[in-house]
Design goal:
Blueprint: H1 4-13, H2 16-27, E1 38-41, E2 47-54, E3 58-66, E4 78-86, E5 92-97, H3 98-117, E6 125-128, H4 132-145, E7 149-153, H5 157-169, E8 173-176, H6 180-186, E9 189-192, E10 210-213, H7 226-235, E11 237-240, H8 245-248, H9 250-254, H10 265-271, E12 279-282, H11 287-297
Helix pairs in contact: 1-3, 2-3, 2-11, 3-4, 3-11
């Protein structure tokens, strides 16, 4: 497993607010090239992901494993590294801890989307899933949006309580809930961050809701109930992180939504945020986000 020092050093390179700004800058950089990621399924349900990208200065590849069977154990579900290279010389500049990059850039993407799209970005906030991504999103939204109140829902009461204690240590009004549907009524800012194969959040959305769904990244996975997704599409807007989500966003695919009509985050940022009704932001991951992290960790 990755040494804690490697994770800490990588996190120090990637503060959330500068990372969100770097993500926005990357979306405006026409030199960025991101080929399709390669996914090799392994016996037993695990997978190997190889995700390269480059701009005019840096090349990088994230090589990680995803092992769902590790959930609930001492081993992380995501392990691996991000290799960063100088395009001019081919020299390796840095090796970043893959799970830390994944957690922080995913939370920073959600932060960027919330900064631009959330009707009430200061919360209160509901987080469904108290693992690595849940904590990263809590930290990112506190630092970037000034969230003061958070509700935590998780299948594991111990994990939920640990995240509640972390939030309280940050000075938040934090509590655990066994009924995320009820907390949804109270919290206009929502993040779902579970490796779910079945629905973990249902209910009706208010016009001021912003939901960032980041846990499901294959067609077979889903976190959100079909009715919730359909309401967001019908009454507000559904935004995906990249065009790849058309084939990967299990929540939206299983809700029967017209994936070819979904605007991407880059398109929304270019056009400006039209604020009407609830917003559902669906994030499936992209090597471009890892390249933004590499750019921040290896400044010119």
């Amino acid at each position: 497993m990755t040494a804690p020092l490697e994770s800490t050093k990588t996190a120090n390179y990637l503060p959330f607010l500068p990372l969100a700004s770097e993500l926005e800058a990357l979306l405006q950089d026409p030199s960025v090239r991101v080929p399709p990621r390669q996914v090799l399924a392994w016996p037993g349900g695990g997978s190997l992901f190889v995700m390269p990208a480059h701009d005019t200065r840096l090349g990088m590849s994230k090589v990680i494993t995803f092992t769902p069977a590790n959930a609930g154990s001492a081993r992380p579900t995501i392990q691996g590294d991000v290799l960063v290279f100088d395009l001019r010389t081919g020299s390796r500049l840095r090796v970043l801890d893959g799970p830390t990059v994944t957690a922080r850039r995913t939370a920073a993407v959600s932060l960027l989307a919330a900064q631009k799209l959330a009707p009430r970005p200061d919360g209160p906030m509901l987080i469904v899933g108290a693992g690595v991504q849940g904590r990263a999103h809590l930290d990112a939204f506190v630092q970037g949006l000034g969230v003061k109140e958070v509700w935590i829902a998780s299948r594991s009461a111990d994990s939920a309580q640990a995240l509640v204690q972390h939030a309280q240590h940050l000075g938040l009004d934090a509590r655990w809930t066994a009924r995320p549907q009820q907390a949804l009524d109270h919290c206009p800012l929502v993040v779902t961050a579970t490796p779910a194969q079945q629905v973990v959040l249902e209910g009706s959305l208010r016009p001021d809701h912003f939901v960032a769904a980041v846990g499901a990244f294959t067609p077979a996975m889903r976190e959100l109930g079909p009715a919730l997704c359909q309401q967001a599409w019908r009454e507000g807007r559904v935004v995906v992180d990249t065009p790849d989500a058309q084939h990967e966003a299990g929540d939206l695919l299983q809700a029967g939504l017209p994936m070819d009509q979904m605007p991407t985050l880059a398109q929304v940022l270019q056009a400006g945020a039209a604020r009407r009704g609830p917003v559902l932001f669906k994030s499936c991951g992209w090597a471009g986000w890892d390249l933004a992290a590499a750019r921040l960790a290896c400044p010119a």
